Amino acid sequence: MVETISQEREKRHVKCFKFIITITPLAMKQPLSTSVRGTTLPEALVGVLLLGIFFASIFELNAVCLRYIDATKESVAALQSVQDRSESLRNLAFADLTNTSTLATLMATPPNAAPFAQKATETVSLSAFPTPNGITQLTRLPNGSVTTNSVATSLGKGLVKVDVSVAWTMTLGRRSRTEQTTSIISNGSKK
Description:
single chain; 191 residues; alpha+beta
């Protein structure tokens, strides 16, 4: 009886072993119904086209940002130019401020060393304050030449209104821009 049980077990083990050997090769084989998946040439071309459009738009966006940065630098340089010229006029003695030839000599040099001065037209206008009696106006062109547009009959002895403006054509959009400031300067002693 003991032999029959062990023989029976052996037969079952042999059957199980044969079943495993029969199934294993089937499991290793790929099914015949599946096809090989991959990228076709049209799919690859569409992907390359989309990638090209993406990078072209990024590069154009970068170029627009750089043009806006240049326009901002121009505006800041114009503001600095107006402030520097206004400060140099405030530092003059009142007699020199009201003298046209002294103003023309001062205007012959740019307000600062920025390259912006080579493409801007600077205008300085002086008039008596509060009641003007004519206007003294000088213009400095981008090439550095100074012209006297008008000379006031009298600039008075107490207060002078000084207008400083800078006009230029922007790099971005080729639009005309102007930056301006107005000051009232009194005839007094400096401390």
